[in-house]
């Protein structure tokens, strides 16, 4: 996968390796300084290990107008974006989403919402709550394949990534270390724990780290809520709807609120950030993904608040349309970056234990 982006990243990595001023900034620089020659796989690993906190850019003495013209966050972001497109399956879908992500997300939600409204006009199999609009059997028939497909697609992507970066057999200790780093968002805290420079060049902030944590933990709570509802339905013969004190509600409500708050926060940060320190061509895809996350969470909360009103069928159609879009587009959106970052952290844990 020899490209201009890889060549430019290699040039900048070699200069950074000679300078070593940013050695303590994040996990990228110890990994970078452990190499003398950078293969395509090395650069792909460094790119996915980078969390684009941008602290190294503002600390660097070789940025423009210096003749070296270093912009390592951008160089790695472009390699990272290219790797996601190259490893994705099917690859063509990933390239299309990155260039027109916001429009594709909007079109997908609209089309699937109309689809669910059309199903409703054909009649429901009956049931309480949401199942009076769309039967449980219909929901399972639609969403089970939509849930399995992205897992299959991402498994292919991860296998390609692991092969390209010369990944070794994984041990439990590697996984534990990687998950610990991801849970704390360690690489968004900066080398000294002050945060990153994503908002302003002279201001360290934890905002981006906290916004990511709100979205991540909100999503995990919502996933746990859905899992709890599934267990109650099949194992205990307790179908929805569930009362406010039930486990699905106790997990889902705070999860939805965290996702809404975190998504809005991330969108605000992205609008303020310098696009030239990331991959400019991927901005629309990234914003489309965050907007899709926001819509999933927001419509879920609105359904809870207005589930007994005449607006429920419309809200349900929009919510289901956004959830189905989210599942099917996951391998091509920035949702996939969580899997790549985790794989990169596992690979980094291997490197540290080998050296």
UniProtKB/TrEMBL annotation:
<dbReference type="InterPro" id="IPR036197">
    <property type="entry name" value="NarG-like_sf"/>
</dbReference>
<protein>
    <submittedName>
        <fullName>Tricarballylate utilization 4Fe-4S protein TcuB</fullName>
    </submittedName>
</protein>
<feature type="transmembrane region" description="Helical">
    <location>
        <begin position="102"/>
        <end position="123"/>
    </location>
</feature>
<keyword id="KW-0812">Transmembrane</keyword>
<feature type="transmembrane region" description="Helical">
    <location>
        <begin position="251"/>
        <end position="271"/>
    </location>
</feature>
<keyword id="KW-1133">Transmembrane helix</keyword>
<feature type="transmembrane region" description="Helical">
    <location>
        <begin position="283"/>
        <end position="305"/>
    </location>
</feature>
<keyword id="KW-0472">Membrane</keyword>
<feature type="transmembrane region" description="Helical">
    <location>
        <begin position="129"/>
        <end position="152"/>
    </location>
</feature>
<feature type="transmembrane region" description="Helical">
    <location>
        <begin position="311"/>
        <end position="332"/>
    </location>
</feature>
<feature type="transmembrane region" description="Helical">
    <location>
        <begin position="214"/>
        <end position="236"/>
    </location>
</feature>
<dbReference type="InterPro" id="IPR012830">
    <property type="entry name" value="Citrate_utilization_prot_B"/>
</dbReference>
